[in-house]
Amino acid sequence: MNSMSTLSWIAAASLLGGVLSVACAALFALTARAAWVPMLVGYAIGALLGAAFLEMLPHAFEGGESVRTVAATVLAGIFVFFILEKLVLWRHCHVEDCEVHDHHADAHDHGRSGMLILVGDSFHNFVDGILIAAAFLEDTQLGIVTALAVIAHEIPQEVGDFLILLHSGYGRTRAFMLNLLSSLAMFAGGLIAYFALQTLQEWVQTIIALAAASMIYVAVADLIPGLHKRRELKATLSQSALIALGVASIWLVGYITRH
After folding, report:
1. How far is Cα 132 from Cα 145, in angstroms, rounded to an integer?
2. Which of 187, 131, 183, 133 is nearest to 158 (CA)?
3. What backbone torsions phi and psi does residue 107 show, to the nearest 5 degrees?
4. Domains in the chain: how many in total?
5. Residues 60-88: pLDDT tens digits?
6. Of 156, 178, 176, residue with least CA distance to 26
7. Stated pTM of the model
8. What confidence tier does 95 reach under pLDDT thresholds 50, 70, 90?
9. Is the pLDDT at 97 greater than 50, yes or no?
């Protein structure tokens, strides 16, 4: 695949990933279907873990680095994302009353909590764009799977962000436009990474390993604990089925794009 085709894939995937997730989030929030978010979270967990273990890690291990080096990179990545989350930069709110964004603490914060969300979300989207670019530079099929996994976990996150912006005093139109503007950071991250990694090809494998680490961290440390709040058998079976569906979707997309 020539470089222009690669750039087109990166631009389309990063732009669509951001815009589509915001549009779907607004649709869920404005049509009072936020109760569906837990179902989206279950599917997102499967998509993230499927992309990490079925696609990204195999590609990382097949590169020039040793298995031990790749494994150490993944471990370091998980630690870095933990630190970033502590700094409220790499934050993932998938529910309205997220602990990190305790917007009920001050009903008159004049939108400060909303701005905090937008700053953190922009940073996160920018990093997602970099990961998408690195995946496409390695392999088109890997890029497609990575973009789908990013979209899957962005939708429930954006629903939570949208609802918190409304609680912070933003109108629906303004909340939507600000979220949409924040999503463009993914497009910027993708383009910058494409041109930067053209001269730093040796970094592609490392970034793919970090991408796998980010997906594992988000799924295991951020999303799965929320599902444990519902312990009844029916909820457990539903969550398990949705996680399996997410994994199966990634496997199917990978299978189709390889054949």
Report:
1. 9
2. 183
3. -70, -10
4. 1
5. 888 767 889 999 999 999 998 888 777 75
6. 176
7. 0.74
8. very low
9. no
Backbone angles phi, psi at 87, to 5 degrees: -85, 5
Determine if residue 84 is left, alpha or beta; phi over 0 gives left, psi from -120 to 50 gives alpha, anything else beta. Answer: alpha
Q: Which domain holds residue 181?
A: 3-258
Instruction: Output the pLDDT for position 203.
Output: 79
pLDDT of 226 higher than 50 = yes
Q: How many Å apart are CA 219 and CA 202, to the nearest integer?
A: 27
For residue 89, the 8-state DSSP code is: S
Rounded CA separation 18/101 (Å): 21
Q: How far apart are CA 243 and CA 134, in angstroms?
A: 26
Please, which residues have CB within 8 angstroms of residue 212's CB and are 6 or more apart in sequence?
51, 52, 53, 56, 57, 60, 74, 77
Q: What angle do CA 41, 153, 102 make, to 5 degrees?
A: 70
Q: Looking at 108-117, 195-204, 206-215, 221-230, which range is the least confident one?
A: 108-117
Between CA 135 and CA 124 the distance in angstroms is 17
CB neighbours of residue 62 within 10 Å = 12
| Residue partners of 171: CB distance under 8 A and separation at least 6 | none
